[in-house]
């Protein structure tokens, strides 16, 4: 059975960074290959994982949509499903430590429901073959509501350490409840927590997170510090695999994952 982690939160809060850290941690724990699903159309998980996506599933989504229109429903069903699964296999980037599937985005107007359903079914089947799955989502919850994975073991809401950031995470949680998103455990991660200035007030974002998520099923699972090295390396296009093990974001993330993922 695969263990599935999904990450959500508003844009720019650190979802992709956390997803890459999770892929590295899980693979170092021996749960390899990890299936990394990049479900954010503004994809950059590939760069953080040190590979380059050329053919995103978005193109496949386009092809399935066209196929659905060109073949009659009575003859096309199985062929389309089979073709799609083949295409997905082809678009996987495979490495020893992880496989990456980039979902891309629907390109044209019109209805993608059929294509999305077929795609969802294919990804679910694929995900079942991996020991661990990490899903990096876009800011909304569309992918989770479409159930591109069977079941999420842990859904993490990433928030920056501002009041606004944490309030947005709480709203996203309320939405997830409304959409009946099924997750084994729910957590919030406060990212980019700054060292307080000497003699200055201490950072209270964790207390605020506790208060905001009172009366919810969400646990405050931890925080990651603001770290110049992480930002600079990302800007320079360096992958997560060479981040030094003593980096404070890595050590904080590793101990958080150790609490979240049963061994
Ligand atoms: N703890 C951190 N310290 C410093 N910079 C960070 C930290 N977490 C993320 N960043 C930087 O913030 C930017 C946005 O992060 P990213 O993971 O791409 O966010 P998202 O996927 O939510 O849009 C990136 O440049 C990333 O390197
Ligand atoms: Mg991202």
Note the topology.
Layout: E1 3-8, H1 15-28, E2 34-39, H2 45-48, H3 57-70, H4 73-91, E3 93-94, E4 98-102, H5 113-127, E5 132-137, H6 142-145, E6 152-160, H7 163-178, E7 183-193, H8 205-212, E8 218-225, H9 228-235, H10 248-260
Parallel strand pairs: 1-5, 1-6, 2-4, 2-5, 6-7, 7-8
Antiparallel strand pairs: 3-4
Helix pairs in contact: 1-10, 3-4, 3-5, 4-5, 7-8
This protein binds adenosine-5'-diphosphate and magnesium ion.
Structural features, described:
The protein has helices at 15-28, 45-48, 57-70, 73-91, 113-127, 142-145, 163-178, 205-212, 228-235, 248-260, and strands spanning 3-8, 34-39, 93-94, 98-102, 132-137, 152-160, 183-193, 218-225. 44% of the residues lie in helices and 20% in strands. The protein has one domain: P-loop containing nucleotide triphosphate hydrolases (Rossmann fold). The chain is globular, with a radius of gyration of 19 Å. The protein has an eight-stranded mixed sheet with strand order 3-4-2-5-1-6-7-8, with helices on both faces. The model has no long low-confidence stretch (mean pLDDT 85). The chain starts with a strand and ends with a helix. The protein is built from ten helices and eight strands. The chain has 263 residues and is α/β, with parallel strands linked by helices. Helix 1 packs across helix 10 (248-260), helix 4 crosses helix 5 (113-127) and helix 7 (163-178) runs parallel beside helix 8 (205-212). Adenosine-5'-diphosphate (ADP) binds next to helix 1, strand 7 and helix 9.
